[in-house]
Amino acid sequence: MTAPILTTTAALEAFCDRAARAAFITLDTEFVREKTYRPVLCLLQMALPTGTEPDAVLVDPLAGDIDLKSPPALARGRGLPDYGHAGGQDIE
Asked: Which tens digit of pLDDT belongs to each residue from 11-54?
């Protein structure tokens, strides 16, 4: 099964609403660093425990109609144990 690619704020917010009820969230980000003055976020990967539909999504932060305020709001103050890959780069 291929993870859906979210390209709108509404789709991202719907996933984050489901994620707020999950036991944990996993997160990974990818950046373009070549030929830029600063890293440019080009992919956000989020997953929930198996059994949640969909349990994994890809977020296209470069899509024209997407606001990325939902994932940080989800991570703040909800008491969820979150997991990431190379988290130092994600915080950057």
From this structure: 999 998 888 888 888 888 888 888 888 888 899 998 988 776 77
- How far CA 58 is from CA of 5, 20, 36, 37, in Å, comes to 5, 17, 23, 25
The more confident residue out of 92 and 42 is 42
SS3 19: helix
b/e for 55-79, b at 16 or more Cβ within 10 A?
A: bbbbbebeeeebeeebbeebeeeee
Phi, psi dihedrals of residue 83, rounded to the nearest 5°: -125, 140
Residue 47 bridge partners (DSSP)? 26, 56
The set of residues, in sequence order, having a beta carbon less than 8 Å from that of 31 and lying 6+ positions away, is: 39, 40, 41, 42, 89, 92
